[in-house]
From TrEMBL:
It comes from Amphibalanus amphitrite. Residues 56-77 are annotated as: Disordered. Residues 61-77 have a biased composition (Basic and acidic residues). This is Ras-related protein Rab-2B. One of its GO terms (molecular function) is GTPase activity.
Length: 77
């Protein structure tokens, strides 16, 4: 998370942080539990998404904003 702090202090406020948890299908075998990853993402104001190549999970989680929606809101076409 040090890099996250360093990065956010070096760029403008337009930075959108996204944390992606992979191997969502492995449950307790994951190196970082989902709850911890969500907590760390929330502490940095980042969006959190889950992915799994095995189950093809990669769609946004219900009720969570998509990063591209944030960007479109900030920078309309």
């Amino acid at each position: 998370m040090w890099r996250c702090h360093k990065l956010s202090s070096a760029v403008s406020s337009d930075l959108v942080l996204v944390v992606v948890g992979n191997k969502a299908d492995l449950g307790s075998e994951r190196a970082v539990p989902e709850a911890l990853a969500r907590t760390l993402a929330a502490a940095r104001g980042a969006h959190y998404y889950e992915t799994s190549a095995r189950t093809n999970l990669g769609k946004k989680l219900t009720g969570e904003p998509r990063p591209e929606d944030d960007l479109l809101e900030r920078y309309p076409r």
